[in-house]
Fold:
Amino acid sequence: MSIESLVAFLQEKGNHHFSEPEEIANYLKKLARSSYQLSKSMKDPVNLSMSVTLSLIRHIESQLKRLDKEISRLMQGNPQRLVLTSVKGIGDVFTADLLAEIGDIKRFNSHHALVKYASLVWSQYQSGEYESEDTKRMRTGNKYLRYYLIQAADSIRKHDADYQAFYQKKYNEVTRHQLNTNARSS
Structure:
């Protein structure tokens, strides 16, 4: 395959998410040239195995879409969903996840109680005038709610320009421990 064809293929299959597709295409060609060649007796079993694996992935993806549609249908009757789905980036699936883990929001006296329940609080290390910058997140609380809140916040970051600008401002203020959001999958 020519470099131009490979670049076009990468852009199409990657939904134009690659910032430097030419560089990636050259790297893939270099990898292909230096890769181990299979013997003729192994090509068919390896190709069959890869074909079955890709078929399973497609099947699981179609089942996830089906499940998402059913969750969305079930959420239509829930009046609480309107508050969460009004936020750009939060759909019915995130809403269902969050509502399932939070339950009745009125059981929390404040937002501080909710974030503590989600284990999104950090311990404090201080002595006199000294306060440590490096602290550990407390490991108690609902790990599923924490996961859903973090994923929902990242989705909002991707879909809301104001939130993206705020996130970028805060990201630039941090000198250490910056989160690499580009490394994570969507």
